[in-house]
Amino acid sequence: MSFFRIIMPNYNNSEWLEKSIGSVLGQTFKDYAVVFVDDMSTDGSEGKARELIDTHGYVIPLGEKRWNGGSRNVGLENYLSSKYTLFLDTDDWFASPDILQKLHDFIVDRDYPDCVRLPFEIFYDGDKRLPVMLNDATPESLVGSIFVACWTKCIRSDLVVPFPENTLMEDVVQHIKQCDVLSTIEPFDELAVIYNKNNTNSCSSEQNQDLQHGKWQSSMFRYMADLLDLELQHDYCIEHRDWRAGICLKNIKNDVYSQSV
C-alpha cells in the first residue's frame, strides 16, 4: 500500500506533461503511485506519459470518451491501495519538490484527518501568480466554498466519492457529496498546487466555453439532474445543494451556460 495515490486525468495536454508529471516524479517523498488516465487524446499524450512515468505508476488509455469525471473514476477503480488520494490535472503541477513530504508529515502530526485542504497558486497571463490560501476546517465551511476543485483536497482514500460522468461540470456535485462524508478537516499551511490558467486548451478556459458542439449546454442540464439526485445526510449539504440547484435553474432559464454556478 502506498501512502498517496495521485490520479491524473488527461486530454491533449502533451505540452504540459513534462512539467506536470515531472513535479510528481521529482518529489523527495517516494511512497506514492501515479494513476494517469488518458481520455482519448490525439496529441501523443499517452506515449509521452508512458515514457515519463515508466515504472513509477500506471498509464490507463480509455477506449471511449469519459471526460474528467469518468477519467477520475477509472483512476479510483484501478488503484485502490493507498491511504490518501490526491488529484492533479495534467496542465497543473505541485508547487515544490518537498510538498508530498510536508503533506505526509502534516497528516501524521494531525492524527490522519479525513481531508486536508490544499492552498494553491494561480499561474496566469504569462507569468503572473496569485496565491490562494484555504482555511476551511469543518465540512460546513468547506461545502460552501467557491473553491470546489477536487485537487484542492487530499482525502482519505476509503472516503473518496465518485464523480458524475459525461459532463464538463463534475466538480461541484462531487464536492457536495464529498463534504457529506467528511468529519475531520485540516487546512494545510503551504501552497501545494500551481493552477495553470495559461493553458488555452483547457475546458475551463474562456476560449472553450462552447467546447465540442454545445457540451456546456448539455452539461448544465446534467448538472441540474446530478444535483437533484444527490442523497445527502447533513443539513448543511442539503441546503447547499438546494441553493446550487436554484442558481442552475435560473441560468437554464436565462440560457447561461458556464461553470460559474
Question: What does this 3D model show about the protein?
Answer:
- It is a single chain.
- A hairpin with a 3-residue loop joins strand 7 (120-124) and strand 8 (128-132).
- The protein has helices spanning 14-25, 45-53, 67-78, 99-109, 139-143, 171-180, 211-229, 235-253, and strands at 2-10, 32-38, 57-61, 82-87, 93-94, 115-117, 120-124, 128-132, 153-156, 185-187, 193-196.
- It is built from eight helices and eleven strands.
- The mean pLDDT is 92.
- By secondary structure, the protein is an alpha/beta fold.
- The protein has a single domain, classed as Alpha-Beta Complex (Spore Coat Polysaccharide Biosynthesis Protein SpsA, Chain A).
- It starts with a strand and ends in an 8-residue tail after the last helix.
- The relative contact order is 0.14.
User: What is the CATH level 1 assignment?
Assistant: Alpha Beta
How does the overall form come out from the CA principal axes?
Answer: globular
The separation of the N and C termini measures 38 Å
Segments where pLDDT lies below 50 for 5+ residues?
Answer: none
Strand order of the largest sheet: 3-2-1-4-9-6-10
Largest sheet: 7 strands, mixed
Class per helix and strand makeup: alpha/beta
Q: What is the number of helices?
A: 8
Number of separate structural domains: 1
The run of helices and strands is EHEHEHEEHEEEHEHEEHH
**What would CATH call the homologous superfamily?**
Spore Coat Polysaccharide Biosynthesis Protein SpsA, Chain A
Strand portion: 15-25%
Secondary structure: number of strands = 11
